[in-house]
Amino acid sequence: MQAVDNFYDLIKHLNHKIRVVGYGVTEDTADGVAIECEDCKEVLFNFDKPFYNEDGVCESCGGDVYIAHPVSNGNMYCDNAMCEHSNF
User: Fold this and answer.
1) Euclidean distance between CA atoms 8 and 14, whole angstroms
2) Would strands 32-37 and 65-68 be described as parallel, antiparallel, or unpaired?
3) What is the pLDDT of residues 41-81, one digit of tens each?
4) Which runs of E-coded beta strand occur in 1-88?
5) What is d(CA 82, CA 40) in angstroms, rounded to the nearest whole number?
6) Element (H, E) at 49
7) Which site in 11, 39, 45, 51 is 20 to 30 Å from 19, CA atoms measured?
């Protein structure tokens, strides 16, 4: 759970010791990453690794990734109907 979602939450950590922490770390990547305040022992922000790479390509099947209904939910899906990350 993230402790910070606005300016007022974050300013409380000004001048604290902050670090980036990887979870499920392997040699060249991680399953997730977080920004933690070591003074307060809180996770400020955290992100899970997405199923697609920086070029918008699904790492499971090589299909293109797109945003479904950006106005309503903004979820990302693979365009390959056979992929586990597809919404077809």
Assistant:
1) 11
2) unpaired
3) 999 999 988 899 989 999 999 999 988 765 556 788 999 99
4) 18-23, 32-37, 42-48, 65-68, 75-78
5) 45
6) none
7) 51
d(CA 88, CA 72): 18
The residue assigned the tokens 């390509």 is 57
Q: Determine the distance from the C-alpha atom of residue 77 to the mean position of all C-alpha atoms in its chain, rounded to a whole number.
A: 15
- Asked if 77 and 70 touch (Cβ cutoff 8 Å), the reply is no
Helix (H, G, I), strand (E, B) or coil at 52: strand
Phi, psi of 9 (to 5 degrees): -65, -40
Which pTM does this prediction carry?
0.67
Q: Give the three-class secondary structure for 10.
A: helix
Distance, in Å, from the CA atom of 38 to the CA atom of 88, rounded to the nearest integer, reads 43
Instruction: Give the separation between CA 58 and CA 25, rounded to whole angstroms.
Output: 20
